[in-house]
Every structure is written in structure tokens, then in C-alpha cells.
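Need residues for this backbone.
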């Protein structure tokens, strides 16, 4: 899982085997993970991150 960026407690990375899906990145912090589509930018999956209101 190549890491694209580390910023504080966050790690942005991708899986080279995620073929057949639109371009996206995974974001990880401790026990939370999210998948974000890049074009158009939107949240695909969120496990553990708190929603911002």
C-alpha cells in the first residue's frame, strides 16, 4: 500500500490492486478509514470518522 502523504495522524494511500474502480485514495487515522473518489470528489466509504456538520 504505497503512501502518498502523511500529515499528522493521517495517512493517504492507494492499493495498486483497486482496478475497475474510479480513481480514489484511502485515508487512515488510527482505527478509522475512508475511501474518497477523486473525479468527482466524493466520499465513497467512511468507517470510524466522525461526520462534520
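Answer:
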Amino acid at each position: 500500500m504505497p503512501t502518498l502523504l502523511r500529515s499528522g495522524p493521517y495517512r493517504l494511500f492507494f492499493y495498486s490492486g483497486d482496478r475497475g474502480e474510479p480513481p480514489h485514495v484511502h485515508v487512515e487515522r488510527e482505527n478509522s478509514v475512508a475511501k474518497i473518489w477523486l473525479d468527482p470528489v466524493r466520499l465513497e466509504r467512511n468507517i470510524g470518522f466522525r461526520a462534520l456538520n
